[in-house]
Structures are given as structure tokens and as C-alpha cells.
Design goal:
The protein is mainly α and about 150 residues long. It has one domain. Helix content is about 90%, strand content about 0%. The protein contains four helices and no strands. The chain starts with a helix and ends with a helix.
Length: about 150
């Protein structure tokens, strides 16, 4: 059973971190290629990703917890803590930032100081999530190596 839980946690982690990377890359390319389209499309991409990442966060947390319960490890405890930290970011974005940004954008205030400040906070959260998930990935690898050594 630990193998099943390790696959679930690792697969969800890969989709979450890979999704963040893809989101960053696609939005950057879109703004460079066609700013007018990007101004309409990027908010929709971020809103869709917020929902997606919440589901993946839940799967990561449940998978890591089940894996740890079936085979306790400090690496899995660390991965779980980092998943929880990234999940906090995933929860904070829609609760505190995205709605306000979208309201400002729809009112035509997407170039204003408040929007820029919220955008900066969102980028800090996304960057923090990415860092936490990258570190969690290292811990998943170390937990898997421990399992193979057993």
C-alpha cells in the first residue's frame, strides 16, 4: 500500500508543480506575443489554475499523509509540511487577492497602483508555492529512496 500512496502523492505533486511552471511560461509568452489577448486570457488562466491547484493540494496532502501512516518517515513529514505551506498559498490567493484583482481589472483599473500591489503579492505567493513544492519533491525522492533501502 505504501507504493500506491507514493504514486498518488508524487503524481499530484508533479501535476501541481508542473502546472505552476506551465502557467508562468504560458502567461509570459502570451504577453510577449499579444498583449491585448493576454490581458483578457491571463486572468481566466489564473482563475482556472486556482481551482485546479486546490484539488491537487488536497490530493498531495492526503497522499503524503496516507504514505506516512503506512510507512512513517521524517522525509514524508517534511513533504507534508511543505505541501501544507503551498496549500496555504493556494487558499490565500482566491480568498484575498484574485477577486480584488478581477474587480479592478473589470473596472478598467488594471494598470493602477492597487492592482500592481496585489499582482506583486500574488507573484510572491506563487513563487513561494513553487519553492515549497520543489523542496517537497526532493523530500519525496528521499522518502522513496528510504523505502527502496528497506
Amino acid at each position: 500500500m505504501p507504493t500506491t500512496f507514493s504514486i498518488i502523492a508524487t503524481f499530484a505533486w508533479a501535476l501541481w508543480l508542473g502546472g505552476l511552471g506551465c502557467l508562468f511560461l504560458c502567461v509570459q509568452v502570451l504577453f510577449a506575443a499579444d498583449r491585448a489577448t493576454a490581458l483578457d486570457a491571463a486572468p481566466l488562466m489564473f482563475i482556472a489554475f486556482e481551482r485546479y491547484q486546490l484539488g491537487l493540494a488536497a490530493i498531495c496532502l492526503l497522499g503524503a499523509a496516507a504514505w506516512w501512516l503506512s510507512r512513517p518517515s521524517r522525509w514524508l513529514a517534511g513533504a507534508f509540511a511543505l505541501f501544507a505551506l503551498a496549500a496555504i498559498g493556494a487558499i490565500l490567493l482566491p480568498m484575498t487577492i484574485t477577486g480584488r484583482m478581477e474587480d479592478l481589472r473589470l473596472r478598467g483599473e488594471g494598470a493602477g497602483a492597487e492592482f500592481r500591489q496585489l499582482h506583486g503579492r500574488a507573484m510572491m505567493i506563487y513563487t513561494g508555492e513553487s519553492a515549497a513544492l520543489a523542496a517537497a519533491g526532493v523530500m519525496l525522492v528521499l522518502a522513496g529512496r528510504r523505502r527502496e533501502a528497506s
